[in-house]
Specification:
The chain has 149 residues and is low in regular secondary structure. The chain contains 1 helix and no strands. The chain is globular.
Length: 149
């Protein structure tokens, strides 16, 4: 269950400020942040992340190592978000905007990325076994590096 104090802080912030809100360590387990503006938020490995982020604006967010296992992120804006080493196993990212997102070494096994926009996303080292990609836009994605990288 989400910590009420943390949830109220997030709701009050909801993208009003241009400086990043740091949610590392915040207990948002099971919280619904559906449709919230969370641009540039930082939510890393130490905090329990919310399960419902449908329609949320997470553009530019730093979600390095975040546990978004089975999270609802459909129609979320994750453009230019850092999802390096994030756990997105079984997450619903259908119709999400992941344009230019950093998904290096992310775990996307069994995630639903149907009709998601992955234009220019970096998927180098990402685990994609069982991932649904029906209708996804995959223009310019990075899935490998040159030998001298």
């Amino acid at each position: 269950m989400a910590n009420e104090k943390h949830l109220k802080e997030v709701q009050a912030y909801s993208g009003r400020y241009r400086e990043p809100m740091k949610l590392n360590g915040a207990d948002l387990r099971g919280a619904s942040l559906r449709g919230m503006n969370l641009e540039w938020v930082t939510m890393g490995v130490s905090g329990a992340t919310p399960s419902n982020l449908q329609d949320a604006d997470l553009s530019g967010a730093n979600l390095y190592g975040a546990n978004l296992n089975h999270a609802h992120l459909n129609r979320a804006n994750l453009s230019k978000a850092c999802l390096v080493r994030a756990n997105l196993t079984g997450a619903d990212l259908s119709h999400a905007n992941l344009e230019g997102a950093q998904l290096t070494d992310a775990d996307l096994r069994f995630a639903n990325l149907s009709y998601a926009n992955l234009t220019g996303a970096d998927l180098f080292g990402a685990k994609i076994y069982g991932t649904q990609l029906d209708g996804a836009t995959l223009n310019g994605i990075v899935i490998s590096r040159p030998d001298n990288y």
